[in-house]
Amino acid sequence: MRLYRLTASFPREELYGLTTQLRRSSSSIPANLAEGCGRNGDAEFARSCSIAAGSASELEYHLLLAKDLELMKLQEDEELVQRTTEVKRMLAAFLQKLSAEC
User: Fold this and answer.
1) Helix/strand/coil for 44
2) pLDDT confidence of 91, banded at 50, 70, 90?
3) Which of 20, 70, 80, 94 shows a CA-CA span of 20 to 30 A to 13?
4) Which contacts qualify for 59-62: CB closer than 8 Å, 24 or more apart?
5) Helices 18-37 and 42-68, interaxial angle, to 10°?
6) How many other CB atoms are found less than 10 A from the CB of residue 5?
7) Which residues have CB under 8 Å from 73's CB, separation 6+?
8) d(CA 71, CA 7)
9) DSSP state of 41
10) Contacts (Cβ under 8 Å, ≥6 apart) of 55
11) How many CB atoms lie within 10 A of CB 63?
């Protein structure tokens, strides 16, 4: 939710660019996890987790780009990057656990 509120203040010319990319990549993370939960077996769930991790990496890049373009305050950027990094760590640990079970 925080990302949606933050991107609402982005310039209008970014509406179909960076705003959309940030929102899409951030919402793809939980959406892929939810989809994986609906699949059969750990292998398919692991694949969905891997896709979610890719979306988290994409989000991380878009946050860096928004920072470079000075669309966010430093404090906002640091917090969102920190949260994204934590999500990536959790997904990596979870994927490792799933891989050990497969």
Assistant:
1) helix
2) very high
3) 80
4) 59/22, 59/25, 59/26, 59/29, 59/84, 60/84, 60/85, 60/88, 62/18, 62/21, 62/22, 62/25
5) 160
6) 8
7) none
8) 9
9) S
10) 25, 26, 28, 29, 32
11) 25
Assess whether pLDDT exceeds 80 at residue 100. Answer: no
Q: Which residue has the higher pLDDT, 82 or 77?
A: 82
Arithmetic mean of pLDDT, 17-42: 93
pLDDT at 98: 81
Check whether 23 has a pLDDT greater than 70: yes
CB 62 within 8 A of CB 27: no
Residue 77, pLDDT score: 84
Q: Classify burial at 3, counting beta carbons within 10 Å of its beta carbon; exposed 0-12, middle 13-18, buried 19 or more.
A: buried
With a CB cutoff of 8 Å and minimum separation 6, the contacts of 11 are 71
Q: Structure pTM?
A: 0.89
